[in-house]
Amino acid sequence: MTKKGAILLLFAAFIVPVILAKFALDNDWFSRGSTNKGELLQPVKDINALLAEQPKRWRLLYTLPEQCRQSCQNAIYSIHQVWLALGKESDRAEVTVLVTDKSDPTITRQIAEENNINTITTTRDKLESSELNTSGEEILLVDTLNNAMLRYQVYDDKQEAVMASRDILADLKKLLKLSRIG
Questions:
Q1: Which of 3, 60, 80, 159 has its CA 20 to 30 A from that of 112?
Q2: Mean pLDDT across the chain, nearest whole number?
Q3: Domain spans, the chain
């Protein structure tokens, strides 16, 4: 083999895999791996207008609807249980419930009595400008920069809600492990 042939072979050995990898990524030739259990919000929702005054923490965020039905009660129970399950890491995260003047007053009073749930009173206009779901159909995982990044569904069935809270806990633990902030 000549010097020129050896150089071309060496060149091809390094360049061809890079070109094939580029084509594979561009044409989705494989399924991309994902380890998060919640639905990734793209783009993330900036809710700094609602949480600007709050300390920098990871948050489990829920918006209290006008009528708190079973799914709403399950959501509040679930996020509180997730926070409790964090154990020594619980000081890095916070359960936050957004309340408006139209939110269910009975549940609002119950939440206010709970020590580990932070309630923030806001207006419907601020919620709508932040593009948050005001019907209580989702739990959001919010980072320390007040960006809602993961969404979780709420369930009417208590057992399904508990099983879904395991997913929230898994994602939050992973983020706390990888993050040095909050």
A1: 159
A2: 88
A3: 1-33, 37-178
